[in-house]
Specification:
Helices cover 78% and strands 2% of the residues. With 209 residues, it is an all-alpha fold. It folds into two domains: 1-50, Orthogonal Bundle (Arc Repressor Mutant, subunit A), CATH 1.10.10.60; 54-200, Tetracycline Repressor, domain 2 (Orthogonal Bundle). A two-stranded antiparallel sheet has the order 1-2. The chain is elongated.
């Protein structure tokens, strides 16, 4: 095994251990010693990969965000029928586990970061990175649908993220008020609205030699 592969494997084990420890203990109560113990490494191995507990937490969140955004993107690719799109998106949303615990953990860290300028800056950078992924997803969807969106892809990405976060919060607080259908239905509505209000994408013709 190459050193790069070994480092990647160690990092993967640490992130998996962090997910377990943070879920059980919460952000404030979790310690890097616990993460190291669960992963089967020394604390030094943790610090050789992550400079602090907040960096470890944000790395875990980035991994989850990338996986979730990628899964939603794959689910919506090459699907034109609204009912099929709804089913594909709902399957991705419903497959995510422990959403209540994840929401509580995310809120705990967010409140912590709001009172710590350095942590807040790191959180903002991480949020921008996730936002950029959603923007790229919106642009790809518009290309696939052959439409120029009526508003900027950046704003559409903001709306998508706000829908997910808002419905996620509502469902965590009051599960009877919001079910797993809500987010998929909202995204299908948004895509239909973009297609209806947008303009056909112009195709560039190649000049004859």
């Amino acid at each position: 095994m190459t050193p790069e592969r070994r480092r990647a494997q160690t990092r993967g084990h640490l992130l998996a251990a962090a997910a377990e420890v943070f879920a059980q203990r919460g952000y404030h109560s979790a310690t890097l010693d616990e993460v190291a113990e669960v992963a089967g490494f020394s604390k030094g191995a943790v610090y050789s990969n992550f400079s602090s507990k907040e960096d470890l937490f944000l790395a875990l969140q980035r991994e989850r965000e990338e996986g979730l955004i990628g899964a939603f993107g794959s689910a919506g690719q090459d699907v034109s029928d609204p009912s099929d799109l709804f089913s594909a998106l709902r399957d991705v949303y419903a497959a995510s586990r422990d959403r209540d615990e994840e929401w509580a953990l995310w809120m705990e860290f967010t409140l912590f970061a709001m009172r710590k300028p350095k942590a807040r800056t790191k959180l903002a950078e991480s949020s921008r990175s996730a936002h950029d992924m959603v923007v790229d997803l919106v642009k790809r969807q518009c290309r696939d649908d052959g439409v120029e969106p009526p508003i900027s892809p950046d704003l559409i990405a903001c709306i998508y993220s706000a829908l997910f976060t808002g419905l996620w919060q509502q469902q965590a607080i009051d599960p009877d008020a919001v079910d797993d259908d809500a987010f998929a239905a909202a995204i299908v509505f948004m895509r239909q609205a973009i297609a209806a209000l947008g303009h056909p994408r112009r195709t560039t013709r190649k000049r004859k030699a």
